[in-house]
């Protein structure tokens, strides 16, 4: 009996949608199964009473996001729909906000760093610049930083480098514990995306690209896949109470979920899957009756609140500064990101209690917030962001060199790159691996089809 589909993709986040898009372009019959009632995963946005609320990812970059920009161009999305944010990232220290974090200008402006720490930051920038070609975000296991954790790397420098730069950036944007995650992927990614002043957003919500991709695909939402089993060169999926067969399956879900669904995965896959751990993320969206923001000498898009200063919040995002259309005229929208140390308790608490705790903490930085905040929304992802532990870094090489099989994987964790660009690149790579197996061998004299991305040329 012939399979029901050429390819089944499990998960309609950015990785799954990119995979399905590439395979559909190649002429294969593809269906995407998504457990939630919506597409986008951690790139989802929703609309409420004139507000556009980003549940997960917050920004992209004008540089270092080549695969994303190629998709946007292919789908006809104009650059005006991906505007530059333009405002600064600040860090809280000594009772006030210091602008310029995540920007090389911090060497001169300080951005909350002491003079000695600024000197050490200049040393780091010079060292990374001299090894620029070796810091490849697609191959973080090959960098001169080795498998040092961010905390181990920081011990070479003034304490401020860790406490007021590496830790707040890693803790807010990556959701990482600097004692657990390797510094190499972090440095590689920061070098690629460039200064925060060049970061961009999607005009109509961070799910713009996901929605556009889904428009041309067969996506079944509200459909949970319980198991995938390889049978004589094809794959059987248990979807709800039904069974579906496909010539190939791509698991575009977090690594722990993929390992559970594909319990019979070969050892060279399970080794990396088991090493790819995730940190939970949680944040609260505050719909305001006026556009409040942390006080600073420069307008802020994000205020980082380091562990050394706060144990409840990791950052405050000023969404109406990110783009004015995020809130109705004369209104405001703030996102309060929970500190990793507070998330375990918050995940099990009632949503109202969670919102009240974060709002109470944020009022220290944004006076008047409690009185101006109306409706709150809590967004939690148990598998929020992939960690890049030294163990995962060591096991990635063999995983990327594994043989092509009926079950493939996609997700930002494959690239050890906690960003939507990592998801897009992994989707292109998964599609190329599927095509290398499903396409018949080229016959002599037949025209060569267009080349597909591989791990080596996906960057």
UniProtKB/TrEMBL annotation:
Region described as Disordered: spans on this chain: 435-459
GO molecular-function term, one example from the UniProt record: 4,4'-diapophytoene desaturase (4,4'-diaponeurosporene-forming)
One Pfam family from the record: Amino_oxidase
EC number: 1.3.8.2
Classification via InterPro entries: Amino_oxidase, FAD/NAD-bd_sf, Zeta_carotene_desat/Oxidored
Span of domain Amine oxidase: 14-435
UniProt keyword list: Oxidoreductase
Amino acid composition bias (Low complexity), ranges on this chain: 435-452
PANTHER family: PROTOPORPHYRINOGEN OXIDASE (PTHR42923)
Annotated protein name in UniProt: Dehydrosqualene desaturase
């Amino acid at each position: 009996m012939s399979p029901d589909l050429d390819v089944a993709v499990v998960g309609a986040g950015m990785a799954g949608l990119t995979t399905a898009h590439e395979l559909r372009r190649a002429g294969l019959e593809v269906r995407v199964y998504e457990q939630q009632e919506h597409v986008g995963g951690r790139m989802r946005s929703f609309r409420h009473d004139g507000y556009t609320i980003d549940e997960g990812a917050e920004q992209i970059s004008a540089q270092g996001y080549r695969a994303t920009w190629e998709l946007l161009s292919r789908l006809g999305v104009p650059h005006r729909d991906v505007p530059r944010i333009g405002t600064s990232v600040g860090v809280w220290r000594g009772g006030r906000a210091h602008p310029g974090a995540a920007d090389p200008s911090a060497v001169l402006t300080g951005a909350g760093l002491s003079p000695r720490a600024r000197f050490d930051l200049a040393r780091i920038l010079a060292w990374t610049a001299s090894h620029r070609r070796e810091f490849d975000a697609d191959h973080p296991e090959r960098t001169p930083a080795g498998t040092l954790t961010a905390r181990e790397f920081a011990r070479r420098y003034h304490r401020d480098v860790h406490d007021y730069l590496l830790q707040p950036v890693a803790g807010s944007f990556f959701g990482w514990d600097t004692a657990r995650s390797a510094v190499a992927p972090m440095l590689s990614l920061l070098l690629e995306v460039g200064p925060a002043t060049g970061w961009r957003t999607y005009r109509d919500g961070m799910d713009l690209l996901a929605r556009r991709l889904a428009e041309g695909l067969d996506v079944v939402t509200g459909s949970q896949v319980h198991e995938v089993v390889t049978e004589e060169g094809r794959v059987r999926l248990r979807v709800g109470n039904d069974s579906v067969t496909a010539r190939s399956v791509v698991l575009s879900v977090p690594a722990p979920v993929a390992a559970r669904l594909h319990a019979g995965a070969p050892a060279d896959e399970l080794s990396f899957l088991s090493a790819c751990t995730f940190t939970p993320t949680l944040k609260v969206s505050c719909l305001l009756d006026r556009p409040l923001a942390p006080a600073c000498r420069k307008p802020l898009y994000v205020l980082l609140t380091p562990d050394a200063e706060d144990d409840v919040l990791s950052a405050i995002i000023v969404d109406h500064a990110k783009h004015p259309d995020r809130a109705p005229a004369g209104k405001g929208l703030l996102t309060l990101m929970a500190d990793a140390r507070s998330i375990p308790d918050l995940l099990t608490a009632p949503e109202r209690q969670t919102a009240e705790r974060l709002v109470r903490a944020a009022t220290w930085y944004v006076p008047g917030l409690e009185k101006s905040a109306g409706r709150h929304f809590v967004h939690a992802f148990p598998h929020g962001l992939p960690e890049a532990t030294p163990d995962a870094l060591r096991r990635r090489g063999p995983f990327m060199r594994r043989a092509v099989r009926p079950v493939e994987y996609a997700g930002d964790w494959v690239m050890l790159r906690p960003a939507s660009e990592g998801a897009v690149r992994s989707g292109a790579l998964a599609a190329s691996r599927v095509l290398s197996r499903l396409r018949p061998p080229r016959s002599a004299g037949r025209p060569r089809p267009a080349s597909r991305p591989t791990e080596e040329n996906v960057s």
